[in-house]
Amino acid sequence: MRVCVYCASSSKVDAKYFEATKVLAKELVAKNVTIVYGGGSHGLMGCIADTALEHGGKVIGVLPRFMEKVEWGHKNLTQLILVKDMHERKKLLIQDVDAVVALPGGCGTLEELMEVITLKRLGKFTKPIVILNTDNFYYHLKEMLQKMIDERFMRDEHNAIWQFVDNPEEVIPAILNAPHWDSDAINFAAV
Asked: In the 8-state DSSP scheme, what is residue 188?
């Protein structure tokens, strides 16, 4: 199994986010999951890579060349794929993965998450999307997505696009038990 993990590059975030990331990395390695992530060496990105590698896991990073030039790339990954730009990075991050997991993060994490949600709504991505809501970090996003449905910008069926979980131990069960999603979702993408 291959899982794309979206996460932050900031090293200044609270320790609780690092702890949850370490637990998730160990959970994924224990299930022989290859982690595909943004290739960074700092913050939660560095944490998930380092922890998985320390426990014998496989970690593939996808990094734009301009970030490698400023030495943001992790040097010890199973594989580091250098790409032209952020668009190519996002495309490769979700190519051939079995699920996407979003950890707490900044605007980059949120942008990646919203793009993959949009792709799933349109039937262009059909795999589970699990949002790790550590210490209620994503409370407002959860409320906003529900408001979009309540206000009829999206359909009730679109609630099945994502799953929110509170603890890293819930991520793999959420992936395995996610509702089926089909490429014909485009037929009900419009409201």
From this structure: G
